[in-house]
Amino acid sequence: MLAVKNIDTYYGGIHALKNLSLHVAEGEVVALIGSNGAGKSTLLNCISGVVPVRSGSIIFDELEIINRPPERIVGLGIVQVPEGRQLFNPLTVLENLELGAYLRFSRGSRKEIEEDLTYVMELFPIVKDRKSQKAGTLSGGEQQMLAIGRALMGRPKLVLFDEPSLGLAPLVVAAIFNVILKLQQDRTTILLVEQNAKAALKVASRAYVIETGRITLEGEARALLDDEEVKRAYLGKDYRQQLKKM
């Protein structure tokens, strides 16, 4: 479904992504793990059309999407749940969800939009309870659920998650990853960027490790959980005890 091939990206004179390649098949959950500043969010923003790519290609559903504007990429079926949620805080929960389906309104898909709204409300009952509340008044966990719901309202073929657990309490993190598991069961294709390597590798089928803009390791997620270098760099000394608690 998605093939990123040998892309190079720069911020001014800084070489942010270096000959980077990865792929995501339909129905997969693929994790991308790495430290702060490794290039994880930059990659998602390149796929979304927010950050320009200097060279290489990004193929989605057999179409080259480099240099397409972000709204066209959303229209093709790629939707991002951005780091920090980036909700429309003065608007209500329901209005934020409706904006997630903005491109679909012009296609006369009102019945499908209502069906998707029902699906999101069932997935996140707290969102349904807060639908008339302004988005900026929600808790961090509730805002993350709304951000995910807004993305799903676009009926995406591929969802890009950028640090969905960032800044959230452990119980909320568990709830968010349970939702990702539910989406996986519904055959939603996901590329998951996450610093919480333990949680990410537990829900993903495959994973990549990125360091300073390069993919340094890839493989089955379960195999990477047992990789000594991954354990040392990303899981910490107490990874065994933490994994048992998840």
Q: Low-confidence spans: pLDDT under 50, at least 5 residues? A: 237-243
> Helices and strands: which structural class?
alpha/beta
| SSE order, one letter for each helix or strand | EEEHEEHEHHHHHEHEHEEHHH
Mean pLDDT: 91
Estimate the global geometry from the Cα principal axes. globular
CATH architecture of the largest domain: 3-Layer(aba) Sandwich
**The CATH homology group name of the largest domain:** P-loop containing nucleotide triphosphate hydrolases
Strand content: 15-25%
What is the domain total for the residues?
2
What's the CATH first level of the largest domain?
Alpha Beta
Strand order across the largest sheet: 6-7-8-3-9-10
Assign a percent range to the helix content: 40-55%
Describe the main β-sheet briefly. Answer: 6 strands, mixed
Rg is 18 Å
- At the fold tier of CATH, the topology name of the largest domain is Rossmann fold
N→C terminal distance:
30 Å
The number of E-state strands comes to: 10
